[in-house]
Design goal:
Aminopeptidase, 8-stranded mixed beta sheet
C-alpha cells in the first residue's frame, strides 16, 4: 500500500523474509533499473524494512551516494565501511528501503524517540534523484513531527549543498555546524 507525500509514514514493522546476501557485493546484481518517469503529482512511496539480509542493496546505495563525501573528508576504506554497515544493519529496526512504483530507489534511516524524530540518513540512487522522492519523504516526516509534536532533526554534509538547500527550503534551521556537517531541526509551532 503506497503513501502519498502528505500521509504519515508507517511505523516500522518486523522484517520481511529475504534471502541471505553473500559477503561479496556484486554491484551489477544490485543496480536499480533505469529511472521510470515519476508522477508529477502526489508521489507515492513505501518504506520497506531492511536488515543484514539486505546488505548488498544498502551498501550499493551507500557507496553510490555517500562515498564521495566520506572519501573527501576521511578517505574511503572499503573493508571498514562494509563492516560498519553490517554492524549497523544487525538487529536494527530503523533502516528501510524506499520503494517507488515497485522499485527500490534508496534507503532511509528514521528513529523516533520520546523527544524527537531523527532522520539519520536518506540516500536516493542518483538515477532517481531530482524526482521529488526525498522531498515527499521529508514532508511526510514533517507531517508526523507536527502530529506528534516532536522536533524533526537531521544532519547534512557541508559539501552536500544541494541537500542543505532543500532542507532550508522546507523550513529546517541550522542549530549547530562544524567544518564537516550541519545539524538541522524543524520544530513544530508551540514547542
Amino acid at each position: 500500500m503506497g503513501r502519498t507525500d502528505d500521509e504519515l509514514p508507517q511505523r516500522l514493522c518486523p522484517f520481511s523474509e529475504a534471502s541471505e546476501a553473500g559477503e561479496a557485493v556484486n554491484e551489477e546484481e544490485v543496480k536499480a533499473p533505469k529511472a521510470a518517469e515519476m508522477p508529477e503529482s502526489r508521489l507515492s512511496f513505501d518504506l520497506e524494512p531492511i536488515d543484514s539480509r539486505d546488505f548488498a542493496f544498502k551498501y550499493n546505495v551507500y557507496k553510490r551516494t555517500i562515498k564521495p563525501y566520506i572519501d573527501a573528508l576521511y578517505g574511503w576504506d572499503e573493508d571498514q565501511h562494509a563492516n560498519n554497515l553490517r554492524s549497523l544493519l544487525e538487529g536494527s529496526a530503523t533502516h528501510s528501503a524506499i520503494v517507488v512504483q515497485g522499485t527500490r530507489v534508496g534507503v532511509v534511516q528514521i528513529e523516533e524517540t520520546l523527544s524527537e524524530i531523527s532522520l539519520h540518513q536518506i540516500a536516493i540512487l542518483p538515477e532517481y534523484q531530482r524526482h521529488g522522492i526525498g522531498t515527499a519523504i521529508i514532508q511526510s516526516l514533517m507531517t508526523q513531527s507536527l502530529a506528534v509534536r516532536k522536533p524533526l532533526r537531521l544532519s547534512v554534509f557541508q559539501a552536500n549543498s544541494e541537500a542543505g538547500r532543500l532542507y532550508e527550503r522546507l523550513g529546517f534551521k541550522v542549530v549547530s555546524e562544524s567544518a564537516e556537517d550541519a545539524q538541522l531541526e524543524l520544530t513544530p509551532p508551540e514547542l
